[in-house]
Amino acid sequence: MAGVLLRVVCPGGNVAVAPLFGFRGRKFRSQRRAKVPVVAAAAARITALSSAVANSAAMTSVEKVYEVVLKQAALVREERKERKKAVETGGVSNWDLLNESYDRCGEVCAEYAKTFYLGTLLMTPERRKAVWAIYVWCRRTDELVDGPNASHITPKALDRWGQRLNDLFEGRPYDMYDAALAHTVSKYPVDIQPFKDMIEGMRMDLRKSRYQNFDELYLYCYYVAGTVGLMSVPVMGIAPESKSTTESVYNAALALGIANQLTNILRDVGEDARRGRIYLPQDELAQAGLSDEDIFRGQVTDKWRSFMKEQIKRARKFFDEAEQGVKELNAASRWPVWASLLLYKQILDAIEANDYNNFTKRAYVGKAKKLVSLPIAYGRAIMGPTTSSKVTEFASS
Ligand SMILES: CC(C)=CCC/C(C)=C/CC/C(C)=C/CC/C(C)=C/[C@@H]1[C@@H](COP(=O)(O)OP(=O)(O)O)[C@]1(C)CC/C=C(\C)CC/C=C(\C)CCC=C(C)C
Ligand SMILES: [Mn+2]
Questions:
Q1: What is the structure's pLDDT at 9?
Q2: d(CA 108, ligand 2 centre) in Å
Q3: Transmembrane residues, as ranges (predicted)?
Q4: CATH class for domain 91-189?
């Protein structure tokens, strides 16, 4: 019987291995996917194309990332066709332990990310648990380079984290948190690629503290945040009545991640500079007559205001692109995603309200505005997919 073994490191270091849940004859998604040769062929063709093309140095980051989006969309599109019935959830032999794993993920999400947690409470219980599991893995990955032990992290440690990810996707989770994600990826058509790419983003954070141009910054934003969008779409679900191409929905999810990360960078300029990190593109700083020293000095000048206005304008463009895709999501997912989008986007308004002083003032959205955003998000969420038929599905054959 294929099963998920929970490897629990006990006090004193010995490892207990407990069957968490056995899938009676069930194949894990990665094994099950082999049953769908079309998916493997589509993915192989796109991988071959993307690796051939990706070798050409001329590819921009947007083109490189779009290759990933095409592959993700192809995988999900084929799974949607194959998934004739609701995903069976049987075969789990220890629901209590699994539900405790999900509950622990929910506690971490509530503790570390109140805004996202608020969004997940607007979801169906099944989707909420899956997003909690994804959130915890993302947070743990970010904490490797952003958390209290960041100074000890090495590329080798990231290699081990990547191996642990492979094990998780193959149904061998290391701990309770991994077990929740192992169940989530066996239940939803979530692919491992965005998770691997997020780890690549952490490698980038280890070796890079400056970004020469927006092409470099875009790739970083894809790695650490656009990936979250790609991870989330299979769980959020695309509305059955949507006429949009899968690629366009994935592009919107990618755009939301990019928009969030750009906003995060603009919010944390002072905090990041104090850690010796400047994510803002060097060429754009120079064009605005600004230097790293201006950022370390932390003075709000007219040059800085003018530079920040352009940066905020670009971040808003990515939010606008993301908004095109939210209405294509499953009805049950639109409210939390609208809420999360509107709340994060308002950080840009807060930076403007602070007269662009993101050196010493942390822009945030107050409780009143958060509360007002919920009914506004609900009103947006009622609007469903565009009914006009769009470009036919990308010909993956
Ligand atoms: C309801 C909802 C949107 C849920 C998504 C929750 C989720 C899985 C979030 C993961 C966030 C995370 C911890 C990622 C690790 C790397 C990281 C820290 C990314 C930055 C997030 C901000 O974290 P925080 O505010 O805590 O910042 P600090 O670490 O304190 O500096 C990021 C800015 C990226 C977050 C990216 C997203 C939430 C993208 C979400 C996109 C979707 C859900 C796609 C929706 C689909 C369409 C079609 C639009
Ligand atoms: Mn962080």
A1: 42
A2: 15
A3: 6-23, 217-239
A4: mainly alpha
Instruction: Give how far Cα 317 sits from Cα of 31, 141, 260, 262, Å.
Output: 40, 28, 11, 11
Determine whether the shortest distance from the Cβ of 363 to ligand 1 is under 6 A: no
DSSP state of 329: B
Instruction: Check if CATH label 1.10.600.10 holds for domain 208-397.
Output: yes
Q: Tell me: pLDDT of 392 over 70.
A: no
Query: How many Å apart are CA 193 and CA 70, to the nearest integer?
Result: 12
Whether pLDDT at 130 is above 80:
yes
Query: What pLDDT, on a 0 to 100 scale, did the predictor assign at position 33?
Result: 42
Residue 98 contacts residue 92 (beta carbons within 8 Å): yes
Instruction: Give the tokens for residue 110.
Output: 């509530």
pLDDT higher than 90, residue 355? yes
* Domain locations in the chain as residue ranges: 91-189, 208-397
Q: Please say whether the beta carbons of 97 and 51 come within 8 A.
A: no
Mutation pick for ligand 1 pocket among 132, 138, 222, 228 (CB with most ligand atoms within 8 Å): 228
Closest CA to 183 of 37, 313, 20, 356: 20
Q: Please, where are the H alpha helices in the chain? A: 29-32, 37-54, 61-82, 95-112, 114-121, 125-146, 155-169, 176-187, 193-207, 214-221, 227-236, 246-267, 269-274, 282-287, 292-297, 302-326, 331-353, 367-382
Q: Is the CB of 329 under 6 A from ligand 1?
A: yes
* Whether pLDDT at 24 is above 60: no
ipTM, two decimals, is 0.93
Nearby residues for ligand 2 (ion, Cβ within 5 Å) = 146
**Residue 148 binned pLDDT confidence (cut-offs 50, 70, 90):** confident
The pairing of beta strand 210-211 with beta strand 278-281: parallel
Same topology between domain 91-189 and domain 208-397:
yes
Distance CA 184, CA 43 (A): 21
